[in-house]
Amino acid sequence: MILTVTPNPSLDRTYEIPALDRGAVLRATADRIDPGGKGVNVSRAVAAAGHITLAVLPLGGPAGAALAGLLGAEGIEVAGVPVAGQTRSNISVAEPDGTLTKINATGPELTGDESEALLRKVGERSAGADWIACCGSLPRGLAPEWYAELVARAHRAGARIALDASGPSLTAALRERPDVVKPNAEELAQAVGRPLATVGDAVKAAEELRAWGARAVLASLGADGQLLVDEDGTHFGSAPVTAVRSNVGAGDASLAGFLAAGGSGVAALAAAVAHGAAAVQLPGSLMPTPADLDMAAVTTTDEVPLDRALTEPVS
């Protein structure tokens, strides 16, 4: 069972349009509404793969009730913490060439009591969890050290922790030694404070995160593939993508595939790559099912192409 924690969940509506023409009245060719938030997406991908998952998250107002209902319809158990504020709603606009424009709302401000209630809920429901995945931005009212406290409590209870966060909340949590962290290239560059122009630059940044406390680093490099840097060394995985339809939730799908495949080693990296490649070819934040995965197309190697330039270098 994989338990996910999403401190700032959302309702995500995606519109597909022929082109984004600023100031014009646009007609969508398709639209959908999905449960949102990085941890929520991990739970959705885990459930789509046929595994058991539990989503812990704060819920407020009609949007929160709608979010819980959508998750329930996908067979996901929800452990909600009632909050006074309204759960946020986000909008994504997808164009045929894969360009995605996102408008993310701020979300509610949590009180000290609500923050503690969320931590307690994780502790109460974590018994029997193979992994706890803590994912996404922190809402207003939660200090950057909130994830560090969650990781510390989970480790004291004997649980393994995967962390997908960025900025101060990531660096603060590293001192508590999360079992795996999952940054993308931009988050890696932000964490080490310098540009990343090559795969080798990303490897060095991941090694620094390990030196600061992360036991393993699963790094998404977009179209260039994924890295796994752990105590056994550095591994690289990639897969071809025919056409990008939406990259919303692709990194979350990757983390779900990695954890569902055991959360360590090359086989788990291959599962992460397959899930990410499948997710970007689906509309909105739809999560891939086993039928969407093409494991045969995944290539993994310990001979990492260190000199390869990143398709989108991070400044």
Give an overview of the whole structure.
With 315 residues, this protein is of the alpha/beta class. The chain folds into two domains: 1-17 and 28-178, 3-Layer(aba) Sandwich (UDP-N-acetylmuramoyl-L-alanine:D-glutamate ligase); 181-314, 3-Layer(aba) Sandwich (UDP-N-acetylmuramoyl-L-alanine:D-glutamate ligase), CATH 3.40.1190. It is 33% helix and 25% strand. It is built from nine helices and 16 strands. The protein has helices spanning 38-48, 61-73, 112-125, 146-156, 167-174, 185-192, 199-211, 250-260, 265-279; strands at 2-5, 10-16, 30-36, 53-59, 77-82, 88-94, 100-103, 131-135, 161-164, 180-181, 196-198, 217-220, 226-230, 233-238, 299-301, 309-314. Strand 12 (217-220) and strand 13 (226-230) form a beta hairpin. The radius of gyration is 18 Å and the shape is globular. It starts with a strand and ends with a strand. The model has no long low-confidence stretch (mean pLDDT 95).
